[in-house]
Write a structure and sequence with these properties.
The protein has about 525 residues and is of the alpha+beta class. The protein folds into 3 domains: about 1-40 and about 100-170 and about 470-513, ATPase, nucleotide binding domain (Nucleotidyltransferase, domain 5, 2-Layer Sandwich), CATH 3.30.420; about 40-95, no CATH class; about 210-285 and about 350-450, no CATH class. The protein has helices spanning about 45-55, 75-85, 105-120, 145-160, 170-175, 215-225, 230-240, 245-265, 295-300, 315-340, 375, 385-395, 400-405, 425-430, 470-480, 495-500, 505-510; strands spanning about 10-15, 20-25, 35-40, 40-45, 75, 90-95, 130-135, 165, 180-185, 190-200, 200, 210, 280, 295, 350-355, 355-365, 410-415, 450, 490-495. Helix 5 (about 170-175) packs across helix 15 and helix 6 crosses helix 8 (about 245-265). The chain is globular. InterPro entries: Actin, ATPase_NBD.
Length: about 525
């Protein structure tokens, strides 16, 4: 069944492990997410212990399962408010139902969060008339038929959606970046993955993962802040205490780290890049006639561009006067440079504020640039790294030589760490060893350059944004087609679900898509 966009408001929901972004795919301009929600909830610890004691054996007299009450459960703004209280951890258990769980997936928690999300969007589940396109978390890096069926059942039976479609996050993100073939790198909470996509098909057999994620970066960064002498002195000055208690210092350092992660992801952080010699293109997918190559090595060493030579038509006297003026200007420039060099070096620092000391300004030095270090160097010396996982993905034997060359034309990064503006350009420099050292060297089996993708500027509402928003944008692109296709091959209606059950989604997610 195909509907007109005028008759419905298709809802796009991008579920990551830690955040959910949602919005309606309506209007000529593709909108940004209208709701961003942390993908977690909290329950009273007493309720948690009671549920654990019951161990799933509690049943009512008539044989039905005795469902525990959701009284006291918190989500959204209520949870944020509760977490501002002291010692909230002693009374609440925080749960993240969309994170990978080795025991069992928390579908009850997912329903609780999604119900709250729909309420924020003004959708009544009992009378839900909005088609749903769901982009589930890409962690773990698989997309099994059983997972697809479970999400389909969840959409129709828990959310009462009239139509449903599902889209893998790597593919959705690549669509938003203007490509259909490429490498998508996902930075998760505890696990990061690399996906290979060829002609809009996710090559799941090539997917690789590494047990490093944002949580490791957060832990490492807090440890760096604890050991930073400049921050130590700043905190002592701000508190007026020359001997900070270790626990008090940890609390203040955690607040500084949280401020950096939330407020300083733009130009305040410069993630160190590898001194690469390979040619790397920064920008959107290549168009015909475009060859905007970005030389990383030249940027790192700052090689000056030679001044163009011009033919002079002046007389000898005019040339002598011009030469004297140029020499005078050069001497003045040299004097200014010497005076600048004599000044004390400027401090590479930013000013942060924290809740515990709201009226104090605290300087944070160059240590902030090391915020993503574990992703490049591993958890320990010699440990697995993100770029090595990418290397394993692109060298998979199932890829032909042509495919291995083509995928380097579109490298994208998604996940919350992608909010750090300098992270993606730094990451691709670590991938340069997989390329030829010079684009002038001929080779039919090894790529000579790569292209780092960004969201094209023609998406006006996403101009200058970072790529953590790419999966949502890709979902809005697909939603405008999936729910208006007359053949019904890209979505499942409630009639289809009632006839075929959750397995109806298998046709939608087949390779023919």
């Amino acid at each position: 069944m195909a509907l007109s966009l005028k008759d419905m408001r298709p809802l796009v929901v991008h579920c990551d492990t830690d955040y959910i972004r949602a919005g309606f795919a309506v209007g000529e301009l593709f909108p940004r997410p209208s709701v961003t929600l942390r993908a977690c909830y909290a329950i009273p610890i007493a309720s948690s212990n009671k549920a654990a004691d019951a161990n799933g054996d509690s049943r009512a007299a008539d044989g039905d399962v005795d469902v525990p009450s959701k009284s006291g459960w918190l989500v959204g703004e209520e949870l944020v408010g509760a977490q501002k209280e002291n010692n909230w951890e002693s009374s609440l258990e925080l749960r993240w139902p969309f994170r990978p769980n080795k025991v069992a997936d928390d579908w009850e928690g997912r329903e609780y969060i999604m119900s709250h999300l729909l309420a924020l969007l003004g959708i009544n589940i009992q009378t839900n008339s909005s088609a749903l396109l769901l982009i589930p978390p890409p962690s773990p890096p698989t997309f099994t038929l059983s997972t697809q069926a479970l999400y389909t059942q969840f959409a129709f039976e828990s959310l009462n959606t009239p139509m449903f479609s599902i889209l893998p996050a790597p593919l959705s993100g690549l669509y938003a970046l203007g490509a259909t073939t490429g490498i998508m790198i996902y930075i998760g909470h505890e696990e990061s993955s690399a996906f290979v996509i060829t002609d809009s098909i996710v090559r799941w057999e090539c997917s690789t993962s590494v047990q490093i994620g944002q949580a490791d970066c957060e832990s490492h960064f807090e440890q760096l802040l604890l050991e930073d002498d400049l921050l130590d002195q700043e905190l002592k000055t701000a508190t007026g205490n020359e001997s900070l208690d270790l626990e008090e210092k940890r609390k203040l350092v955690k607040e500084v780290a949280n401020f950096v992660w939330t407020e300083c992801t733009g130009d305040d952080i410069e993630v160190p890049a590898l001194n690469a010699k390979a040619a790397i293109v920064i920008g959107a997918a290549q168009t015909s006639g475009e060859e905007d190559t970005f030389d990383v090595a030249k940027k790192l060493v700052g090689d000056p561009t030679p001044a163009p030579t011009t033919n002079s038509h002046k007389s000898k006297k005019q040339q002598a006067q011009a030469l004297a003026a140029a020499n005078k200007a050069a001497a003045q420039a040299a004097a200014d440079a010497a005076a600048q060099a004599a000044l004390p070096p400027s401090i590479d620092a930013i000013v942060v504020t924290i809740p515990s000391l709201p009226e104090k300004e605290i300087q944070l030095g160059p240590v902030r640039h090391r915020i993503c270090e574990p992703l490049f160097k591993g958890k320990s010396i010699g440990g697995d790294t993100l770029y090595e996982a990418v290397g394993r993905a692109v060298e998979n034997d199932s890829l032909s030589t042509g495919e291995k060359l083509a995928i380097w034309e579109g490298v994208g990064v998604i996940g919350e760490v992608a909010k750090i503006k300098s992270f993606s350009p730094a990451l691709v420099t670590y991938l340069s060893p997989y390329l030829l050292s010079s684009s002038e060297l001929p080779s039919d089996c090894q790529p000579s350059k790569m292209r780092l993708l960004s969201i094209p500027d023609y998406f006006a509402n996403f101009k200058k944004t970072t790529t953590e928003l790419a999966p949502f944008l890709g979902g809005t692109l697909v939603a405008k087609v999936a729910f208006t296709d007359s053949t019904g091959k890209h979505s499942v209606s409630k009639v289809d679900y009632n006839t075929k059950g959750p397995e109806a989604i298998y046709v939608v997610t087949s390779e023919d898509r």
